[in-house]
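Lab notebook, bench 4. Still working through the backlog of constructs that have no structural model yet. Next entry is a single chain of 65 residues. Request: give me the structure tokens for it.
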Amino acid sequence: MVFNGTFWGQVFAVLAVIIIYFTVRFAKGKASNLPLVGFYSFLLNFIFPPGGWLYCLYWAKRKCV
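Model written out:
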């Protein structure tokens, strides 16, 4: 089995961008500081990816205040 690091790195980066987009989209109207939500999502997706997915889920399930 050949492990192609470039391919998997690109897949990882595309998935991270998609999750960041949806996190900011879900947080729109619920958060007072959208750039901070995007920054946190960026950090979580590139440092600890499951944390980024959970953060996206948090904003998706959160009710409007």
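Notes after review: The CA atoms of residues 14 and 46 lie 11 Å apart. The radius of gyration is 13 Å. Flag for follow-up if needed.
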